[in-house]
Amino acid sequence: xxxxxxxxxxxxxxxxxxxxxxxxxxxxxxxxxxxxxxxxxxxxxxxxxxxxxxxxxxxxxxxxxxxxxxxxxxxxxxxxxxxxxxxxxxxxxxxxxxxxxxxxxxxxxxxxxxxxxxxxxxxxxxxxxxxxxx
Amino acid sequence: xxxxxxxxxxxxxxxxxxxxxxxxxxxxxxxxxxxxxxxxxxxxxxxxxxxxxxxxxxxxxxxxxxxxxxxxxxxxxxxxxxxxxxxxxxxxxxxxxxxxxxxxxxxxxxxxxxxxxxxxxxxxxxxxxxxxxxxxxxxxxxxxxxxxxxxxxxxxxxxxxxxxxxxxxxxxxxxxxxxxxxxxxxxxxxxxxxxxxxxxxxxxxxxxxxxxxxxxxxxxxxxxxxxxxxxxxxxxxxxxxxxxxxxxxxxxxxxxxxxxxxxxxxxxxxxxxxxxxxxxxxxxxxxxxxxxxxxxxxxxxxxxxxxxxxxx
Lengths: 134, 312
Prior knowledge:
The structure holds two protein chains of two kinds.
Chain A: E1 8-10, E2 24-27, E3 34-45, E4 50-56, E5 63-70, E6 78-80, E7 96-102, E8 106-113, E9 119-131
Antiparallel strand pairs in A: 1-2, 3-9, 4-8, 5-6, 5-9, 7-8
Chain B: E1 8-10, E2 24-27, E3 31-32, E4 35-46, E5 51-57, E6 64-72, H1 75-83, E7 99-104, E8 108-114, E9 121-126, E10 130-133, E11 136-139, E12 142-151, E13 157-158, E14 160-164, E15 175-187, E16 193-200, E17 217-226, E18 233-238, H2 240-247, E19 258-264, E20 271-275, H3 281-284, E21 286-293, E22 297-310
């Protein structure tokens, strides 16, 4: 006998028997992105310097992350990701290099500035309850 | 009394009491990104342009988290497609790749694409050794510096001419820009050098084995005043209209030669715009850069998923 059991929640206007995943809000047949930690902060890097913000993730695995950054505080423009930020093309000639990575313990946000003066950015991160490792 | 309640759904094969989030499909102990909208659009960059962008309005009233994807449909942007990563995909690190930026504000998500160079635009730099100068400065019987334009001590006009061959323009082809550059020049002291630059109004002007100064000139010209500068300087001029007039001639064809004449235009006596040195170094110090623009456009397909979750 074939058994079929689980939990499904369909979107408004769609039948629960749908086989189209986009029509479901939730299905126990598919994993979800669970936010295990989120937070925000600022990162200050001196002229021509490199600075790293380190955030402990407290997971037993290397989690997936999502990061947004406001390159110029107060502009309200939040860029997706912190790898390969715009290099002078936008946002008042910001010239920075950057990297985001995660290891067994922490999330690292690194900012490398070639500016002649100190630079402060704001960041927001989400850490998810699934591993980034394949 | 400590309360502990909520909803959990574990993955098949895992116990519901697990504390490892990887083993759970969902848990009321963890929030999830909640989708606000999912929409797509395109960014089209026409030939000659380098940048494009698209906005996705969200009306949330705050800056939301989002995910964005970008991909293309032809070989040129397949590189981007292959990456298939959340943007920004590349910054200045990947020479030749488009820059893609995505950012959120309290009213919209914006995706910007900047190509490494204007789309379908060709820039060709021409160098030449074919020059003619009416006069020069004699030092111990040898000409050590050529006069490009100016007036001699006796009041005579001094001019010069330059010629490039093998110009890769078809008859009537639209020229986006034609820029002439002369480097390492200087003038005599004290007076402005006034001159005009004309094209030689011929389909395929012959080499300068003879004096070319009397050849028919174009209607288009540039009227220049070079302030006195006894130090080395660089000179550039926009010759787009002049070049266009020559290329628009009915007898012009690809590979023909194009010439230009510098005529003095009222410079006071005994003042000159000088070349630094003579011989082959003249050609090393001048170039003509012609930019042409093709047709068509490049299209990027973008998709943005906006979440209800607030960044700020």
